[in-house]
Amino acid sequence: MTVILMLAIMVFIIGTQAFIPFFVKKTEVFGIYVPLEYSQKVELKKLKKSYALFVWLAGGAVALLYGIVFSSKNFSEETIALWGVGLQLAIILFSMALYLINHLKVKKEKQQQGWIVGKKEKIVVDLQFRQDLEMVSGLAFVLPMMITIGLIVYTLTHYSSLPGQIPVHWGPSGPDQFTEKTVFTSISIMLVLLIMQIMFLVMNHARKTSGSKIGASQKNQSRERELASRKYGSWLLFISTISVTLLLGSLQLSFVHSEIGNGVWYMALIIAFLIAVLGGTALYAFKVIKSGSRAEESTEPGIIDADNDLYWKAGIFYVNKEDPSVMVEKRFGIGWTINFGNPKSWLYLLFPVAVLLLIAFLL
Amino acid sequence: MFIEIEPQSAVPIYLQLANQIMEGVANGQLPPGSPLPSGRAFAADLGMNMHTVNKAYHYLEEKKMIEIIPKKGVFIHSNALRKATEEEKQRIEQELRPILAEAICLQLEKEEMEKMIERTIRNIQEGAK
């Protein structure tokens, strides 16, 4: 069972890693900006194909070996899981190394062939963008916090009738690890939930205020894509905050009133949670890819997007001190990342980590 | 309305911003009272410092082309399309002077210049580049 699960995850990782270069923005080749007219070059297509082939071959070989070795003999569950996770990480590291090699290759090609020499760079801004932006309002993210605060108050008013042992870890059949009852431990899950809800609120706000990156060569199309990415990204965040509130909220309720909840119920809850979040993610990716795949507009010759390679370290990390954005859309077009050049971003990144560590330490 | 900035151009970026907004007002794409993005949002869209956007906004505010209403936002001035005052006429005449001086040095004919002005006015009104 564990072997099959681990193999499934491996194949999923190999598949996504191998296909990423084909899903991303056309003008984005291994983290390097390539003007549209060059982005369909045969050399670049070949690089993408050989990258995908290498990931499939190496990943496939690893997965096959893992499957054969661990299904033939009797290994302990722990060994199987440990090797599985280790090899998954190895596959990710391998594909990242391959990505970096290709990143440097494309960078060199771009310089040698002078793809942006003599071209006019343009930054495009749509004055109407903020008015057309449809995102879930911040208030909607505050409502689930009210539930959390309500549950904290509710738990504290029932403090004397709580069991002496507080569950801190849940397995397939219900709680399986406990800690001593104190005021802090009785509400610790709700505090973690509150931090998560604040993070979702902050992320939604950061995306609302993040700069729109409209391509100079396909203005209307990339504008649509930017709007869709924000809109459905915001819905995904909202689904996530609601699902996590329902999940952790019901766990909290089930230990205040131990008569509700059994193993089946927990499993159903967790599966529903996973479906909601994975479904939301799939919907988001689908909508964004769809909005960006309309027919190309005719492009003015000699005009290219602003070349921001300078700000994208290794094509992955965005570092721009001038840009007031805290979050920016990932360079390849799906997902979000942080502007490491803005001190505020570090605060947003470190604050939740610090608080979560503090809670874990106090438990 | 799309604003298009050329970062490598000799024209300062704040002026490129201001000029394009003014053209938008002139050709009706930005009617009086229509909202503009906040300085922070605009700077984020450009991926540039807020200072650049603020400079453009103050430049336009001085010309009474936009109004910055605290806590509400930035709008095209309700009186952006108006009959020029004597002062404003004088200022435009002054601003034309160095351009005309250069044109005289380059021996442009008066008729040529008139055609140029007509063509440029037409382009601005049609929103052409």
Structural commentary:
Chain A is mainly α. Chain A has 2 domains: 1-115; 118-363, no CATH class. Chain A has 10 helices and 10 strands. Chain A has a two-stranded antiparallel ribbon. In chain A, strands 3-6 form a two-stranded parallel ribbon. The radius of gyration of chain A is 24 Å and the shape is globular. Chain A starts with a helix and ends with a helix. Chain B is mostly helical. In chain B, 56% of the residues lie in helices and 11% in strands. Chain B contains 5 helices and 4 strands. In chain B, helix 1 (13-26) crosses helix 3. Classes of the chains: A mainly alpha (363), B mainly alpha (129). Strand 3 of chain A pairs antiparallel with strand 1 of chain B.
How many beta strands in the DSSP annotation of chain B? 4
Biggest sheet strand line-up of chain A:
1-2
Radius of gyration of chain A: 24 Å
What characterizes the major β-sheet of chain B?
Answer: 3 strands, antiparallel
SSE order of chain A:
HEEHHHEHHEEHHHEEEEEH
Could you spell the SSE succession of chain B in H and E letters?
Answer: EHEHHEEHH
Count of individual domains of chain A = 2
Helix coverage percent of chain B = 55-70%
SSE class of chain A:
mainly alpha
Shape of chain A: globular
Determine the mean pLDDT of chain A.
86
Short structural summary:
The complex is a heterodimer of chains A (363) and B (129). With 363 residues, chain A is mostly helical.
